[in-house]
Amino acid sequence: MITAEAAKNLGMEEDDVRKVVDEVMLLLHKGIVESRAEGQQDYIGGTLYYEIGPQAFYHLLGFLDEFSGSYDWERGIATEYLLRLGRRSDWTPYFHQVQGWNYGSPNEKE
Questions:
Q1: How far is the C-alpha of 79 from the C-alpha of 84, rounded, in Å?
Q2: Does residue 108 lie within any of the structural domains?
Q3: How does pLDDT run across 38-69, given as a tens digit for each residue?
Q4: DSSP category for residue 104
Q5: Ramachandran angles phi, psi of 11, nearest 5°
Q6: 98, 29 Cβ separation under 8 angstroms
Q7: What is the top-level taxon of the source organism (predicted)?
Q8: Residue 109: inside a domain, yes or no?
């Protein structure tokens, strides 16, 4: 498991690493949503680069490059994946986290 390996590599507790990963992913999600609502089209190259370190940025771009070559992803597929990996009730506890985010127009939220 990634969090267990990271915890071992960093000499940290796995639960602490998991909390950090959870928070970073939440902020990454929020960052791209709200930057788009504010009219910024290049969150990754325009803002994120300055918000995370160069190593994290390098590996995120590598991940995205591999991902784009391996998956036929379209907007809305995340819901399909979530429902394939669990019931709606499994994901409901996280829905409140996106409430109040600036999605721009109400029709843009999917």
A1: 8
A2: no
A3: 888 889 988 999 999 999 999 999 999 999 99
A4: S
A5: 70, 40
A6: yes
A7: Bacteria
A8: no
